[in-house]
C-alpha cells in the first residue's frame, strides 16, 4: 500500500512540501512565527547572537507527510481513481469468500486498462501470481502490464527519513557558543555520513540484486517449478494455462520471450 501511495502521490507530496516551506519562510521573515533559539556568530565585523527558528524544518517534515495522507481523498484530474487490489479486495480469511473472489477476478482483469505488479523477489515463485499475469494477458491482450519493484519506494522513504534526521541533528548542534563550534559540526557531518551512506548504499545494492534476480527468473522461468500450497489449485491453474496457451511449455516460452521484452 505504501508503495502505491508514494508512486502515485509524490506530486501532491512535493507540492505540499513546497507550500509548507514557502509559508513557513514568509511567516518567519515577517516575524509572525517566533524564533526558538539563537546561535553565536563571530564574523569579520559582526559579533552577536542570531535568532533562528525551527518552523521551516518542521514543515519540511510534516507538510509532505500530510500531503501524502491527503492524496487518496483528492479528486483525480486524469485517469481513473478505481483499482482492484487483490490482497485487499479478496477475503484472505474466509475460504468461501476467497474462492468466490478468485472466480470473479477474471472480470476485473478483463476490464482493467493496466495491471500493476508490485514486484518483490518471491513474486515469480508463487503460482497464483503467475496465474494472474497469464489470465490478464489472455483476457486483456491490449492491456498494459507494469512491473513496479517496491524497493524504489523503500529507497525514497529511507532517503526522506535520513535527510530529516540529519536536519534535526544539525539544528540542535548549532546551538551554543560560536554556533556550536566547528569541531561539533564536523562531528555531526561525519556521524551522519557514516550512518546514512551505508544505509542508502545497502538499499541501492539490494535494488541491483533484485533487478538481476528478476531478469534471471524471467530468463529461466519454468511454470512446473512454481510453488503452490494446494495440489488442487495447482492442477486447476495448469489446466487453465493449457486451455489458454496450448501447453505449459508454450506459456513458459512466452515468459522467456515476447512477454519479457514487453516488460
TrEMBL record:
Keyword entries, A-Z: Membrane, Transmembrane, Transmembrane helix
Transmembrane annotation, as ranges: 50-71, 155-173, 185-205
Protein's name in the database: Uncharacterized protein
Annotated source species: Symbiodinium natans
Lineage start: Eukaryota, Sar, Alveolata, Dinophyceae, Suessiales
Amino acid at each position: 500500500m505504501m508503495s502505491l501511495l508514494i508512486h502515485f502521490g509524490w506530486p501532491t507530496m512535493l507540492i505540499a512540501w513546497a507550500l509548507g516551506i514557502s509559508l513557513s519562510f514568509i511567516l518567519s521573515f515577517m516575524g509572525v512565527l517566533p524564533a526558538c533559539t539563537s546561535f553565536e556568530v563571530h564574523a569579520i565585523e559582526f559579533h552577536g547572537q542570531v535568532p533562528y527558528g525551527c518552523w521551516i524544518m518542521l514543515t519540511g517534515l510534516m507538510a509532505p507527510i500530510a500531503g501524502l495522507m491527503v492524496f487518496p481523498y483528492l479528486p483525480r484530474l486524469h485517469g481513473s481513481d478505481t483499482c482492484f487490489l487483490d490482497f485487499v479486495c479478496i477475503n484472505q480469511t474466509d475460504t468461501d469468500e476467497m474462492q468466490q473472489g478468485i472466480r470473479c477476478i477474471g472480470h476485473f482483469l478483463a476490464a482493467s486498462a493496466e495491471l500493476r505488479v508490485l514486484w518483490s523477489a518471491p513474486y515469480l515463485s508463487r503460482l497464483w501470481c503467475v496465474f494472474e499475469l497469464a489470465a490478464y494477458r489472455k483476457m486483456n491482450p491490449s492491456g498494459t502490464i507494469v512491473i513496479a519493484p517496491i524497493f524504489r519506494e523503500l529507497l525514497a522513504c529511507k532517503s526522506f527519513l535520513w535527510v530529516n534526521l540529519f536536519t534535526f541533528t544539525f539544528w540542535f548542534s548549532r546551538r551554543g557558543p560560536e554556533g556550536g563550534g566547528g569541531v561539533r559540526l564536523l562531528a555531526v557531518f561525519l556521524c551522519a555520513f557514516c550512518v546514512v551512506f551505508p544505509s542508502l548504499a545497502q538499499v541501492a545494492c539490494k535494488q541491483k540484486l533484485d533487478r538481476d534476480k528478476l531478469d534471471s527468473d524471467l530468463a529461466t522461468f519454468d511454470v512446473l517449478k512454481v510453488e503452490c500450497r494446494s495440489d488442487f489449485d495447482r492442477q486447476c491453474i495448469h489446466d487453465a494455462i493449457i486451455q489458454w496457451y496450448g501447453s505449459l511449455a508454450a506459456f513458459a516460452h512466452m515468459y522467456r520471450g515476447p512477454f519479457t521484452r514487453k516488460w
